[in-house]
Design goal:
The protein is mostly helical and 370 residues long. It has one domain. Helix content is 80%, strand content 0%. The chain is built from 18 helices and no strands. The longest helix is centred in the middle third of the chain and has 29 residues.
């Protein structure tokens, strides 16, 4: 309880601070990355008794970074409806796939060339290409990343995602000819969901175009859906090698069964994430067909359920997990980080955004985005 209570208190204060800064600066600021920064500050400024951090709080902090984190990712699935993808997201899938592919090819390569750890490279690639902090928190235990690598990857998302949120609405308006082009660019080139929504809201306010906000949100949720495939893929990549008897005898080992490996290494929380998304989609479908979700919840009630689980619960759980990551990371582990991770993360963001931009321009000139 001491560790969980400390993480909850830290994230609560962080969300209040983020809300105050957002109101004062008129810039959307997510409390989740603020939570990890607050945890780092508390851990490394001797504000809390060392005995609390080293013994009493340790079990609860570990629980927060494992069980509570996984529960938060499952809850995120309630945000994702396949109906949204089918109605307004299909046209953007080629853009999402091309941009994500470029990121997953470039960032690990650049990380290796920069001398970064394989684990940090995977976190930078996943956070930049999929869904920001949520993807990093999902991938971190799978690749067995250190707390320091997780903190650095989150810092990249905060830094470059915030820059994109502030500048890309203006850039999109001048680069693209259509509302789908602008919205898809914001949804594919900015890291975190809150940052995408902030950029979309800014565009809607500046240029009086609400369609861009909706398209940006659907594009971002389409990216989030790929989490269900990326995490098992990383699990297979980082799985310990299993040598067969044939290898011991000098004969060639049988080829890997990818389907079996996918099932074996798919974490339970990813299945929960997909299950929550399917549940959301089924509720939306029954609401659309009969006027009530699952025959018992009207539109307002279903919206309350979706918001309570997909937004309120997921945000609280992920915020608590990120606060616990910060509270578990000492400054000694961050020494010598330097600028390389941020050079790789920044250049990776440019590659992902640039590839998305090129794909969108192609679709616009082809008359697909109108």
């Amino acid at each position: 309880m001491p560790g969980v209570g400390l993480a909850v208190a830290t994230t609560s204060a962080s969300f209040l601070s983020a809300a105050a800064f957002s109101s004062a600066l008129a810039i959307p600021l997510s409390g989740i990355p603020v939570s990890i920064l607050s945890g780092l500050a508390l851990k490394n400024t001797n504000v809390l008794p060392p005995s609390l951090m080293s013994s009493s709080a340790a079990p609860g902090l570990k629980l927060s970074t494992t069980t509570l984190l996984r529960a938060g990712i499952v809850c995120v699935g309630m945000k994702l409806s396949f109906l949204d993808l089918l109605t307004s997201g299909l046209v953007g899938i080629p853009v999402v796939v091309s941009a994500m592919s470029a990121g997953f090819l470039y960032i690990p390569w650049a990380s290796q060339k920069a001398g970064l750890s394989k684990e940090l490279g995977s976190l930078l690639a996943t956070g930049t290409t999929v869904c920001g902090v949520t993807a990093i928190t999902a991938a971190s235990p799978i690749v067995k990343a250190s707390k320091a690598d997780t903190a650095v990857a989150v810092a990249n998302v905060v830094a470059f995602g915030t820059l994109g949120m502030l500048s890309f609405p203006y850039l999109a308006h001048h680069l693209f000819l259509t509302s789908p082009g602008c919205g898809t660019f914001l949804g594919v080139a900015i890291h975190d969901t809150s940052q995408v929504l902030g950029a979309g809201a800014s565009y809607a306010q500046i240029y009086d175009n609400d369609a861009v906000l909706k398209i940006a949100a659907v594009t971002k949720l389409t990216r989030n859906l790929f989490l269900a495939g990326v995490v098992p893929g990383l699990a297979i990549q980082y799985a310990p090698s299993e040598k067969s008897g044939g290898e011991k005898d000098g004969t060639k080992a049988p080829p890997m069964n990818l389907a079996a490996s996918f099932v074996k290494y798919t974490p339970g929380f990813v299945l929960g994430f997909v299950g929550a998304s399917l549940f959301r989609s089924a509720g939306d479908a029954t609401l659309l067909h009969s006027g009530s979700a699952f025959g018992c919840l009207d539109g307002d009630a279903w919206k309350t359920v979706v918001s309570g689980v997909g937004t309120t619960a997921s945000t609280a759980l992920l915020g608590t997990a990120m606060a616990a990551v910060g509270l578990s990371t000492s400054k000694e582990s961050l020494k010598g980080v330097g600028a390389k991770p941020f050079l790789v993360g920044g250049s990776g963001a440019l590659v992902v955004g640039g590839t998305g931009c090129a794909a969108i321009k192609t679709l616009e000139y082809a008359g697909i985005f109108v």
